[in-house]
C-alpha cells in the first residue's frame, strides 16, 4: 500500500498530494514542469511495480523460514494503510493544517 501511495494511485494520500501540487503548478503556469513531473511519475510507477512483483508474484529459490511478527507490528500493519486511504479520501483536515502551516511561515 505504501508503494501505491508513493506512486500516487487513488485513493491514497499520495494521489491527493500529487494532485494538489500539480494543480497548483498548473495554475501558476508551469505546464512544462508538470509534464516532466508526470513523466517521472510514470517511470517511478514502473519501479514500484517491480518491487510489488518481486514481493508477491515471484517464487523464492529456496524455502524460507516462517516470519515471527510481533502483535504491535501486526496492529500497525493494519492501522497505517487505513490511515493512508482515509487521508486520501478525506484530505480536508490535512489540507487545512498545511494551509495554516504555510500562513505561519509567511
**Helix/strand class:** mainly alpha
- Major β-sheet annotation: none
* Subunit organisation of the chains: single chain
Number of helices: 5
Average residue pLDDT: 92
Number of domains: 1
Specify the helix fraction band: over 70%
Cα radius of gyration in angstroms: 18 Å
Percent of residues in beta strands: under 5%
Order of helices and strands: HHHHH
What's the end-to-end separation, in Å?
Answer: 35 Å
- Which residues sit in consecutive blocks of at least 5 with pLDDT less than 50? none
The 3D shape can be described as: flat
Q: Would you count the extended β strands for me? A: 0
Q: What's a quick, concise take on this entry?
A:
75% of the residues lie in helices and 0% in strands. It is built from 5 helices and no strands. The longest helix is centred in the middle third of the chain and has 26 residues, at 31-56.
Amino acid at each position: 500500500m505504501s508503494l501505491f501511495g508513493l506512486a500516487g494511485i487513488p485513493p491514497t494520500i499520495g494521489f491527493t498530494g500529487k494532485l494538489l501540487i500539480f494543480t497548483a503548478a498548473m495554475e501558476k503556469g508551469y505546464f512544462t514542469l508538470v509534464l516532466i513531473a508526470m513523466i517521472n511519475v510514470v517511470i517511478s510507477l514502473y519501479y514500484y511495480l517491480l518491487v510489488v512483483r518481486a514481493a508477491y508474484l515471484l517464487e523464492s529459490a529456496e524455502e524460507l523460514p516462517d516470519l515471527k511478527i510481533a502483535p504491535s507490528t501486526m496492529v500497525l500493519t493494519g492501522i497505517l494503510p487505513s490511515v493512508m486511504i482515509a487521508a486520501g479520501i478525506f484530505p480536508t483536515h490535512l489540507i487545512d493544517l498545511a494551509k495554516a502551516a504555510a500562513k505561519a511561515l509567511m
